[in-house]
User: What shape does this take?
Amino acid sequence: MSDVAKAGNDSPAKKTFSKEEALAAYNDIVQHASLLDLRLVDLKFKVKHEYFNALSQAENEDGRLEHAFESDLSEMNYDESMNLLIGKFLWSTRVNIKKKKVLSIDAEYYITYSDVPPVDRQHLEAYMGKVGRFATYPYFRGLVSHLSWESSAELPIMPVLK
Assistant: This one.
């Protein structure tokens, strides 16, 4: 995870919480928070001719095409006066032939939760890192499928998060 902007009630030193306190704070967020907004705010799609050559020559059967995807909660802010928790997720998928990137999709989503109680930053991060990630992924997964169809890239269906 990248550096996440300061949010919540915390001091420079990270506070230590018992399991019970951490669970109570997390459950407080779960009980009160509501998804307010989820938006795609940036998209970059690039595919090189080598990718299509590999597809047409069935070179992907010998494992030449390497698929990978990742996510990052790159930013998080909490507005205590409005009880809003806002996160920015970066999702990306790549296809490489050996070490050369031949297809890439990068998408950025903003997600906002309302009615979030004021708890320590680490509990807000835990909530956004888990719940926000699971909320944004289906949108990215659908976007990848759509771009694959539009470009005839024949990408495999992305896996389900666990």
User: Anything to note?
Assistant: The longest strand covers residues 65-79. Residues 121-151 form the longest helix (31 residues). The chain has a mean pLDDT of 89. The domain at 34-151 is CATH 3.10.420.10 (Bacterial Protein-export protein SecB).
